[in-house]
Amino acid sequence: MRGGSQPFLMGCNDGHTYVVKFRNNPQHVRILANEMLTSHLAMLIGLPVPGRAFVEVSPNLISGNPLLKFEVAAREEQCAAGLQFGSRFPGAPSHTLVVDFLPDRLLRRVSNLASIFVGAYVLDKWTCNCDGRQVIFHRDAEQSRAEYSATLIDHGFCFNDGEWNFPDSPIRSLYPRRLVYESVRGLQSFEPYLSRIENLEAAELEEGLRDVPPEWCGDDPQQLPRLVERLYSRRRRVRQLIVDAKNSSLKPFPNWH
Q1: What stretches in the chain show pLDDT beneath 50?
Q2: Which residues contact 127 (CB under 8 A, 6 or more apart)?
C-alpha cells in the first residue's frame, strides 16, 4: 500500500481484510499507538473510521513471504513478526471500489460530506495532526450509480508522529480540496463535534489507553498516560485553534465572513 509507513493489505483469519502497519515501519513504532488511540477518539465523537484490530503476524508468514519487506533508503528491511495494527478494509477487495480522490462533481455527492469533513477538522486540531487529512471514498464496485461513502484513515501523524507533542499551526490538518468546507459559516458549523469534545469525561479518554500495547509506545510507555492528560486539557482550546486557522493566510473557509 502507499504511504510513508509502507503498510500491507492482508487477509486475516477472521475473514476480513486489513491494511496492516508494522511495528518496525520506516516512520516510528508510535504511529501504531497513534492509529489505535485516534480511532478511539474519532468513534467517541461520532466520526466514521475503519474497524481496528490487533493483527498477529507469525514468523513463518514473514520468512515465507519475500514481499513482506520495507524499502528504507537504499536497503530492504524485513517486516517484524508480532502484534501489528490493522485498519479494516471497507468490504471485500474484489467487490469494493476504493479511491482517495474524486472529481468535484462526485465529491459533492458523497453522503454527509460537510459533516464528515468539519468533524475531521475538529478532531485533527485537537490531536494536532501534522499531516494533511487523509480520506478514502468507497462504494460497491458493481453499482456504478451508488453514492460514495467517506471514511477517515491514516492517523499516524496525530500528536506529531513519534514526538507525542502538540506543535500547533494554523495551516496544518486541512484537506486540500476546499469545497468540503463550503458549508462553514462560523464556529457553529463545527457542531456537534466541538461540544462533544469539550464535554468528554477523562475516563472516556482513558479507555483508549487499554487498547495500546506497551511495545507500541517506544522507549517510554509512561508517556502515553501523559499524552492523554494533555489531550484532556486541550479540549477547550480547539475553538481558538479553528479561529486561528480561519484568520490565517490560507483562508480555508471561503464562506466564513
Answers
A1: none
A2: 38, 41, 155, 158, 159, 231
Model confidence pLDDT, tens digit, residues 133-168: 999 999 999 988 889 999 999 999 999 999 999 999
Three cell numbers, residue 63: 520468512
What is the SS3 assignment for the chain?
CCCCCCCEEEECCCCCEEEEECCCCCCCCHHHHHHHHHHHHHHHCCCCCCCEEEEEECHHHHHHCCCCEEEECCEEEECCCEEEEEEECCCCCCCEEEECCCCHHHHCCCCCHHHHHHHHHHHHHHHCCCCCCEEEEEEECCCCCCCCEEEEECCCCCCCCCCCCCCCCCCCCCCCCHHHHCCCCCHHHHCCHHHHHHCCCHHHHHHHHHHCCHHHCCCCCCHHHHHHHHHHHHHHHHHHHHHHHHCCCCCCCCCCC
* Non-local CB neighbours of 36 within 8 Å, separated by 6+ positions: 52, 85, 208, 211, 212, 216
The CA distance from 214 to 237, in Å, is 29
- The residue among 47, 44, 49, 48 whose CA lies nearest residue 199 is 44
Answer for the pair 164, 227: CB distance below 8 angstroms, yes or no. Answer: yes
Q: If you search the block for the grid coordinates 477487495, which residue do you land on?
A: 93
Are β-strands 82-88 and 75-78 bridged in parallel, bridged antiparallel, or unpaired?
unpaired
Residue 257: what pLDDT?
A: 84
Q: How is residue 146 written as a grid cell?
A: 451508488
Q: Starting from the edge strand earliest in sequence, which strands make up the sheet with 52-57, in order?
A: 8-11, 17-21, 82-88, 52-57
